[in-house]
Write a structure and sequence with these properties.
single chain; 336 residues; alpha+beta; 2 domains; eight-stranded antiparallel sheet; 25% helix; 28% strand
């Protein structure tokens, strides 16, 4: 009996000690609302710079107007809208949940300390730092530990360090040379003018007699010419001689503007570069876009007009009748 009482007193002592310790950490373990955002009211309207770094590299995104972000280290090449969407959905929209830890040792363990981290992302307005958030190791699939600078709480959130690489090539807008179907009025390529009646439907000017448009082949060609995606940008200076240009074509937009495309070939590396009158950068483009533009044949864009079945049958009947009339009369057999 005495031993039981001693055990109960020991448990009571532990509970009191634990309560006092939790009370001292009350600011960290108070109830959290799932409606409260991890980064508070931070939004794209409140900052104009985002820096992203790890232990080896860093890069900067800068806003130049309400809807345009660029990469200063890449001569202000446009940032991918999809990457900006990642910042919105995988950082700004993250909800604050119950913290999984809050000690300095945990921050070091999860690589969330000020000196050891997987990613450090800082939001600035002019020279003022608004927020800095750290991304660390992953507790599971598509999740990452995170901590806001100046706070102790560590959270497990639905995000990923892979989405925030500190490399410019990961953030360039690879579709900056592309146009939507509804924007295009005409494509002039290889001596042909391809008119867009509506998305997916085309007319070719000066079509050969007895021929019509091969819509499937035209659609493939127009898609390669107007939806070109790059893999890397090399800046505003052409690294190749003008003599290396292998293709030029024009896209006329429905607003009346014309965009001229020039494609250059690096024979040594077997690579292509693209430059347009609308985007003053020379950028690498996949052979899968250029080869079909260089190799297409005009005759592949047309197909013979087939006459209606009734007309074909009528022509066959006339032909047979003409042949019968033109054949010599049979000689009469002698009567025995």
């Amino acid at each position: 009996m005495k031993k039981t009482i001693e055990i109960l007193f020991l448990l009571l002592f532990i509970q009191i000690g634990l309560s006092l310790w939790l009370h001292s950490k009350g600011s960290n373990l108070e109830a959290f609302s799932t409606d409260k955002k991890l980064l508070g009211d931070l939004s794209f309207d409140s900052f104009d710079e985002v820096s992203i770094s790890n232990k080896e590299a860093s890069m900067l995104l800068k806003k130049v107007d309400d809807s345009t972000w660029v990469l200063p280290e890449s001569e202000n090449f446009p940032v991918s809208p999809g990457r900006l969407k990642n910042i919105q959905e995988k950082l700004l929209d993250l909800k604050q949940s119950y913290p999984v830890a809050f000690t300095n040792n945990a921050a070091k363990q999860f690589k969330l300390s000020n000196s050891d981290f997987e990613r450090k992302i800082t939001f600035k307005k002019g020279e003022s730092v608004l927020k800095t958030v750290y991304l660390g190791t992953s507790p599971g699939f598509k999740k990452v530990y995170t901590r806001v600078e100046g706070e102790d709480n560590i959270y497990s959130v639905q995000s990923n360090t892979v989405l925030f690489q500190p490399k410019a090539e990961s953030w360039i807008d690879k579709s900056v040379y592309a146009f939507k179907d509804e924007e295009i009025a005409k494509v002039i390529i290889g001596g042909l003018s391809i008119l867009t009646k509506e998305p997916g439907k085309y007319l070719i000017q000066d079509i050969p007699k007895g021929q019509k448009e091969n819509i499937n082949e035209i659609r493939k060609l127009v898609s390669k010419a107007t939806r070109m995606e790059i893999t890397e940008t090399l800046g505003k200076k052409n690294p190749l001689p003008e003599s290396s240009r292998v293709l030029e074509y024009i896209i006329e937009k429905k607003d009346g503007t014309e965009v001229t495309y020039n494609v250059y070939k690096d024979s040594k590396k077997k690579e292509f570069l693209v430059h347009t009158s609308a985007v003053p950068f020379y950028s690498k483009v996949s052979n899968s876009f250029v080869d079909p533009l260089l190799g297409f044949k005009k005759e592949d864009l047309f197909e013979k007009i087939e006459a209606p079945k009734e007309e074909i049958e009528s022509q066959e009947m006339k032909k047979n009748a003409n042949e019968k009339e033109a054949s010599p009369m049979s000689e009469k057999l002698p009567v025995e």
